[in-house]
Amino acid sequence: MPLTRRTFLTGTASLAAVAANPRATLAATIPAxxxxxxxxxxxxxxxxxxxxxxxxxxxxxxxxxxxxxWLSGVADAPYTPGQWDSADLWRWLAGRxxxxxxxxVADAYYPRLDRNAPDEALNRLATARDIDLMIVMGTIAGxxxxxDTHTVPTxxxxxxxxxxxxIVASESDPGREHVWAHLDLTRFHRQLRIFHDTFRFQxxxxxxxxxxxxxxxxxxxxxxxxxxxxxxxxxxxxVRPPADEADFPRYYADLGTAWTELSxxxxxxxxxxxxxxxxxxxxxxxxxxxxxxxxxxQLGPEEVERGALMSVARADFAGIGQFGAGTIARLFGGxxxxxxxxxxxxxxxxxxNIATAETIGHRIPFDALLAADTxxxxx
Length: 379
What we know:
Blueprint: E1 3-4, H1 13-20, E2 23-24, E3 41-47, H2 52-67, H3 87-94, E4 102-110, H4 120-127, E5 133-137, H5 139-145, E6 154-157, E7 179-181, H6 187-199, E8 203-208, H7 212-217, H8 220-230, E9 233-238, H9 248-263, E10 268-271, H10 281-290, E11 295-297, H11 301-305, E12 310-314, H12 318-332, E13 344-345, E14 348-353, H13 354-360, H14 366-370, E15 374-376
Parallel strand pairs: 3-4, 3-5, 5-6, 6-7, 8-9, 8-10, 10-11, 14-15
Antiparallel strand pairs: 1-15, 2-13, 12-14
Helix pairs in contact: 2-12, 6-8, 9-10
């Protein structure tokens, strides 16, 4: 079981700096609910694949819309921290009368909107004109729906780097009137600086899909920028993602080979986002433990709990939920989507795995443990 400490006390210089400087651009004034020509505002949803951050963000947005008066009775929406499947939450949201202002459209739910998915959602947005807003989770789903094929307002969350993925043009201007994306383009800079401050590695391992979308998902441009800035070398392996469910055995075999090879060539490993299931993570990361290589999870505490040494990620999803709901409320209230802020980050969670530290022979400084949000005692 994790020991949670939300104090962020002194800590090391870099850990304390991250904890002490959260930055957020939130709506100063949330407009009162506004009618939509005699009917409710209709919201659809798409995601790249099942993923815990996606469900948590959707739940956070729904709760915040309730606090803002745009929804009612949403506090009981079913959600368990850590769950990956959004189907039950969406079914609940779509199956209830949540007030006179907003409805979640039951059949406008598009899970697994990945590279191989048909264009059903895109075609609907382009022709049916029965959806007022799409909430989209993930880089791949974002790239499929953030297009000029339609004009339905599209809000993209949980994309690693929406600028690199060409979902939006920049932090200050999404580039399209109907597309918006949540941005925190310094998140992985902060992660890598903390990891490097802690271990002073010279050769950092990274494995990723060497495609335009794959490099964006890994935020490779950020990794390369920090390598140049901090003076370490990158040792790379390319792993093609699974094309479909039948391709997962090949994917796991390739990933295992890549990580095993890297464990013998690097002095630290930065584990970027991947398609593995969490229950497969421990055997995959084992070669780094065997060779006493420190590992940092780009994803967050979920992988630290299962054997990665450390991570820095979002503490909870209330903040991003409030930010996203504020954006929706302002859009429905009549503001121009292209003019609404996209940048938000909140206080992160710093996670350590003590058992992994002992296995690789690293003594975690006491002040770093005090600065941590979550400390796992076992895997």
